[in-house]
Design goal:
Layout lengths: L6 H12 L3 E4 L6 H10 L10 E6 L2 H16 L12 E10 L15 E10 L11 H8 L3 E6 L9 H28 L22 E5 L13 H9 L4 H6 L3 E5 L6 H4 L11 H11 L9 E2 L2
Parallel strand pairs: 1-4, 1-5, 5-6, 6-7, 7-8
Antiparallel strand pairs: 2-3, 3-4
Helix pairs in contact: 2-3, 4-5
Length: 299
């Protein structure tokens, strides 16, 4: 139950109403829908003395969308691609819950509260490699953080390097252009609906924190190695350097939405490290360090 009387709860509500929270995006087939569905239904905290994340749909449309995907998973049916003619906005709430079991000398934990919103647009993944709808761009530039899901096993016909170069340039380029346009309008004294704040550094890099999630951790043991930034460059070639060129604050974080072959064979998913990208993004926005450091390899 959310304690609305606590300062944390009030602050969380204010943050949720004034920004777009965390926005999830990624190329076609990267596992975005599966990730969200398993976060809602199957994510567990293995550390009983740590605060827990709970992800819930924020409205009926989103709840129905999640339920449909989970049912398809249980029936062994593939997750459907979006067939909507217009982008469908889905909204989730991230709750921070007290530990399941407090330590012997631990302070009394803060009450459960809404930590942030999590946004996702149900559109064909190809939308991010083509002309990105303006509504998505506006939400991304107003976000506290961006959660980018990439499948390290995806091997497009044109080659990974060329494919991801086009993908990164399309999205990051349009975000930067939207901010430059909003900045110019602000300097001219005009209101511009493209963005409500300036998220460009002096060198025009985006200061919004970006968690780069390499999915299917269970299929790629190399993702468990320490130098994941180097691995990112090996996987995506020179296109990975575009992230350093366009972003000030990003992290490479492997995860698995399903947990392994048993889940794919019909057992319930057992997500691994699925909440870590969200925790990292919240930490960046909470401490206001966006733009204060560059890429760092996860420990």
């Amino acid at each position: 139950m959310v304690d609305r009387a606590t300062p944390d709860a009030a602050g969380s509500a204010n943050r949720e109403s004034t920004d777009s929270g965390i926005v999830l995006w990624g190329p076609p087939g990267s596992g975005k829908s599966t990730y969200l569905a398993t976060l809602v239904y199957y994510n567990e905290c293995l550390d009983e003395q740590a605060r827990r994340w709970c992800v819930l749909p924020a409205d009926g449309v989103t709840a129905e969308w999640v339920s449909d995907r989970v049912q398809r998973w249980r029936d062994g049916a593939p997750s459907p691609k979006s067939l909507h003619a217009e982008p469908q906005a889905l909204s989730f709430r991230l709750y921070s819950l007290p530990p399941a079991r407090a330590g012997l000398f631990a302070r009394r934990p803060a009450a459960a509260h809404v930590e942030a919103a999590l946004r996702f647009w149900d559109v064909p993944g190809e939308s991010y490699t083509g002309e990105i709808p303006d509504a998505i761009v506006r939400q991304m530039v107003d976000a506290r953080g961006l959660l980018l899901v990439l499948d390290p096993g995806f091997d497009p016909p044109e080659g990974r390097e060329r494919y991801y170069e086009r993908f990164f340039l399309r999205t990051l380029g349009k975000l930067t252009f939207a901010m430059q346009r909003a900045r110019a309008a602000a300097h001219a004294g005009a209101a511009d609906g493209a963005a409500s704040r300036d998220v460009l550094a002096g060198d025009n890099r985006l200061t919004i924190p970006v968690a780069i999630c390499l999915s299917h951790l269970d299929e790629h043991p190399a993702l468990r190695e320490g130098d994941r930034v180097r691995l990112l460059r090996e996987l995506f070639g020179d296109s990975a350097q575009l992230l350093e060129k366009w972003l000030t604050t990003w992290e490479v974080l492997p995860m698995s939405a399903t947990g392994g072959p048993a889940a794919r064979a019909g057992a319930d998913p057992a997500p691994e490290l699925a909440a870590h990208p969200i925790a990292w993004l919240l930490d960046q926005s909470r401490h206001g360090v966006s733009g204060a450091r560059g890429a760092q390899a996860a420990p």
